[in-house]
Amino acid sequence: MEKGNLDFILKMAQTINPQIYPGRELNINLSELRQLPEGTLGREVARFFDENGFEPLQSGDWIQRTHDVWHVVTGLSPSKNDEFILQAFTRSQVFRPSSAILVLAGLLIHKCNLQEVIHTVKNGKMAKKLIDWDIESDWATPLSEVREKLGVIPFN
């Protein structure tokens, strides 16, 4: 996503959403995560950042700073379609007006479809609340075990 578009979306989300744990710390040290064994949450998060040329967000609330970790846990890529689907998952997990707006926009411009959204919302409601999850305690845990613990069914 282009930097200008990302900045706009982040600012919109900060303006219209209730802020979730805005001061909660999250340490995403990519150098350390790259050293973890293959298949662990931390290694897969580092791979996601590296493959997509992303850097961890240092601003925003908990949802914004953990967004890319949620991509990894759900198995969703940063493609336009998957971004809209992740917003449906996010909205099913927490009250997030911007997520609902983005999902509606994705439906209107045909970047996602209603069946995908319904399926995602169902899965998101069945999963444990990711906002309550201590991500850093699971860096060295195999991603498959993290998904099982959280009740997240990967999308790929």
Describe this structure in words.
The protein has 156 residues and is mainly alpha-helical. Helix content is 58%, strand content 0%. The chain has eight helices and no strands. α3 crosses α4, α5 (80-93) packs antiparallel against α6 (97-108) and α5 (80-93) packs across α7. The two termini are 21 Å apart. The mean pLDDT is 92.
Kindly list the characteristics that best describe this protein:
0% strand; 58% helix; 156 residues; mainly alpha; 8 helices
Write the layout of secondary structure elements.
Blueprint: H1 3-16, H2 30-34, H3 41-52, H4 62-74, H5 80-93, H6 97-108, H7 114-126, H8 143-150
Helix pairs in contact: 3-4, 5-6, 5-7
Secondary-structure-derived class: mainly alpha
What profile does the largest beta sheet have? none
Number of contiguous helices = 8
Shape: globular
Q: What gyration radius follows from the Cα positions, in whole Å?
A: 15 Å
Number of strands: 0
Distance between the termini: 21 Å
Q: What proportion of the residues is helical, as a percent range?
A: 55-70%
Overall pLDDT score: 92
Order of helices and strands: HHHHHHHH
**Residue fraction in strands:** under 5%
Identify low-pLDDT runs: none
Q: Could you write a compact summary of the structure shown?
A:
InterPro entries: Coq4. This protein has 156 residues and is mainly alpha-helical. The chain has helices at 3-16, 30-34, 41-52, 62-74, 80-93, 97-108, 114-126, 143-150.
